[in-house]
Amino acid sequence: MAKVPVQFTLNGAEKAEFIDSGTTLLNALRDKIGDTSPKGGCHQGTCGACSVIIDGELRLSCLTLAETCNGAAITTTSGLSEGGVLHPLQRAFLDAFATQCGFCTPGMIMAAKVLLDHTPSPSREDVVEALSGNICRCTGYEPIIQAVLTAARSNSQHAA
Amino acid sequence: MELRKSYFADQRKDDLHEIGQPRPRSDSPSHVTGKTAYFADRNFPGMLHLKMVRSPHHHARIRSIDTSEAEKHPGVVKVLTAKDVPHNVYTILILIQIGPEDETVLADSKVRWKGEAVVAMLAETERAAQEAAAKVKVDYEVLPAVFDMEEALKPGAPLVNEYHGQNHYLYDSGECRKVRFGDVDAGFAGADHILEQTYQSSPIEHAPTETTGCIVAPEGNDRFTCYTNTQAMFFTLDNASIILQMPGSKLHFVGGTVGGGFGGKVDVIVEPIAILGAKLTGRPVSFIYSREEEMQISSPRAAEKVVIKDGVMKDGRIVARKVTGYTDAGAYSRHSPYGAQKGAGHYPGPYTIPNVWIDTYCVYTNRTPSSAMRGFGVTIGDFALEVQMDKLARLIGMDPLEFRFINAYRDGDMKAHRQPTEGAALIECMQEASRAANWPVAEKYLSMSSYAKGA
Q1: What is the pLDDT of residue B455?
Q2: How open is the CA angle A51-A57-A59, to the nearest 5 degrees?
Q3: Which architecture, in CATH terms, is B177-204+300-446?
Q4: Which residues of chain B does A39 touch, with a Cβ-Cβ cutoff of 8 Å?
């Protein structure tokens, strides 16, 4: 099968690969580039575990063709901490016991980051709405919601 | 968090270092940074993908299987049928002598539930495996199916599983697991009221976000490494050893973080066939359930039916309890004979009842095989029992919490299955619940203790 080239930045680093046409961004990231932080939970856009940020917007990488991402800036949870220092969202998830099996966590953090990037001081309803596309089957939603609200507060304290 | 120190004060040690202290989870830092390694976060060069051809029928005889077109499909490397599996008929609990072996890894002469694995397709890509699977021709003779436990137990019902010979598991105690304690007929005869109710539940799917699967890599020395999200590492290793007729020393199982299990990943389903595929091709094999397979194929919690008959006195004492429990195993045993047995021990609940009669049946039907899930065998029973307790309290006009105090088990009470009660704390839990929920009970219940009656 003829390969197609894709080129984008992943967490700030240049990436270029040849892929089969029709490869999802999720499979390209996991199998070709080796970033396994986005998870495949359903491969049909319902669980949110594969969520990544493309050019500032939350996207389901299992429903995004890799070849449509040429020139894009892609962010995943594995790229959030800087110099070994956790992102405020990662810190808040850690402190709030907002992880159990951990499989939904990278997608949850992506959804939360896009929320806080657009809405620095969200209401509880904003958080619930922003996470509504992400399933946590361990049903630890309440600590997750609290973690996002805590991260928002710590962000605003930094800003002030 | 508040620790109530008034309960069991004489047993309490106050030099505890961990209890009452928040401790960070050791796995959280890798979860929040996306570094946790799940079984599927591995990729081997030349890895094959396994897809199953599954039965479209609930119950059918297999007349013939034609894989010739599938084998010609581009990308197909190997096609496996029942004859390729060294020990094709197995049962998980044979490891603890709970037989008979009653389930096929790949169906040979019959399929007994819709979705049963018939042919395994190994191909260069997932897509090729899927496309080739669709080209397998299986000639089925559809048989009558039975989906209801009571129908399955009637004479003349279609026989689901020939390895059992009848549509229920045969315990050493007979057609059901039995508990007999006191004289239940005398208990009912002396009761002020009798209440018989039937409770039913549907199968429940665990639906973990990470689907069931494994990746197997040949080590090049007749040894195979199996990366798996099983919740039952050694059960799986030992069953794989039996199914593949390979010594355990040839199998290297690597577990790790499971992306949600809840009991749904204790069956031995994906590993043996994936290892066989790796053995016969010499290549790494990935066998990962699709979301549809996770929902339709992986075993759910069993459907249950619980019939409870209680004799109760006006003063609140339960004097007799008769329970008939039915556990729907689906087409194969897996863990259900054990679940039904647990129910037999559990149905008196945390209550002391002098006269008890319990029968629990593990029933075979043409439904998806059920298996373990969080407290299987007792969780549905608890639902039934506690609803029954509320109904009994209402029947005699008593507060439901006070009714439970009267019947609560305490240290020294003999349970129906002949285990004396030790370390009971139900009274104290209910006392605290009464306060926490602001559900007042009479003072005499607040002065009760689990230590002994009348204490």
Answers
A1: 41
A2: 30
A3: 2-Layer Sandwich (3.30)
A4: 38, 209-210, 259
What are the structural domain ranges in chain B? 48-143+207-296, 177-204+300-446
Residue of B400, B365, B406 whose CA lies nearest to B386? B400
Nearest-neighbour CA in chain A from B146: distance (Å): 31
Q: How many residues does chain A have?
A: 160
d(CA B230, CA B291) in angstroms, rounded, equals 17
Amino acid, single-letter form, for residue B2: E
User: What's the average model confidence in pLDDT over B224-232?
Assistant: 97
Q: What is the pLDDT of residues B116-133, one digit of tens each?
A: 999 999 999 999 999 999
Residue B454 predicted with pLDDT over 50: no
Q: How far apart are CA A119 and CA B17, in angstroms?
A: 41
Tokens of B32: 């929040």
What was the pLDDT predicted at B16?
79
CB contact under 8 A, B209 and A80: no
> With contact defined as beta carbons under 8 Å apart, do B307 and B316 qualify?
no
Q: Do B367 and B328 touch, CB atoms closer than 8 A?
A: yes
Q: What is the pLDDT of residues B383-396, one digit of tens each?
A: 999 999 999 999 99
Q: State what percent of residues in chain A have pLDDT above 90.
A: 91
A91 to A80, A84, A118, B293: CA distances (angstroms)? 11, 12, 20, 36
pLDDT at B153 over 80: yes
Once rounded to an integer, what is the mean pLDDT over residues B431-441?
96
Q: Round to whole Å and give the CA distance between B325 and B385.
A: 12
> Tokens standing for B368?
């998806």
Nearest-CA distance B43 → chain A (Å): 6
Say which residues have a Cβ less than 8 Å from residue B323's Cβ, sequence separation at least 6.
Answer: B306, B307, B308, B309, B347, B357, B358, B359, B360
Q: For residue B235, is pLDDT > 60?
A: yes
Question: Domains of chain A (ranges plus CATH)?
Answer: 3-79 (3.10.20.30), 88-159 (1.10.150.120)
Which fold would CATH assign to domain B48-143+207-296? Aldehyde Oxidoreductase; domain 3 (3.90.1170)
CA distances from B18 to B15, B26, B320, B424, B431 (A): 9, 15, 43, 23, 25
Q: Is B38 on the interface with A (CB under 8 A)?
A: yes
What are the chain B neighbours of A131 within 8 Å (beta carbons)?
none
Is residue A105 less than 8 Å (CB to CB) from chain B? yes
Q: What's the confidence (pLDDT) of residue B14? A: 78
Tell whether A3 is within 8 A of chain B (Cβ). no
